[in-house]
Amino acid sequence: MTITRPSQNSFKVIFSLRGALGVVLCLCASMAMAQQKPAPKPASPPPPPPRVISPPASYYQNQQAQQQQQIRNQIEQNRQREQLQQNIQNTSRVPNANNPAMLQQMNQADKARQDNYNAQQREQLNRYQNTTTTPPPASSR
């Protein structure tokens, strides 16, 4: 058996086939990688809902009691002021007891003042009755 030396052309063919095969393999690998989709990341859980912090019912009861006390104080102050004003009015009538025009004018002023006082007292009583502060309904958690 005789070993012959390969020709230069046969080397070119072998290397060109290897080169072509390498190019084909590179193209196939890049196409396969392009077709692969990246693995989806696991979805993160949604953030927890915000916590609503509401004060205890005793807070609302205390607030209501404070508002009612303030209104009671205002009613009492108005009552004392009205009593003082009435005393002043009665004292000022004495010197004018014989002057009917002056008495009529004082009676009209007294009636207007009394109407104003009654309106203020009604308004404050309505405020007192409307100070029912109730706590908000408990939220479901």
Structural summary, described in words:
- The structure is a single chain.
- This protein has a domain at 58-129.
- It is rod-shaped and about 160 Å long.
- By secondary structure, it is an all-alpha fold.
- The mean pLDDT is 77.
- The longest helix is centred in the middle third of the chain and has 37 residues, at 57-93.
- It has helices at residues 8-35, 57-93, 100-129.
What coarse outline follows from CA principal-axis ratios? rod-shaped
Computed CA radius of gyration, to the nearest angstrom? 50 Å
Strand content: under 5%
Structural class: mainly alpha
The H/E string reads HHH
Task: Provide mean pLDDT, rounded.
Answer: 77
- In total, how many beta strands? 0
Helix content: 55-70%
Distance between the termini: 93 Å
Largest sheet: none
Which segments are poorly predicted (pLDDT under 50) over 5 or more consecutive residues? none
Number of helices: 3
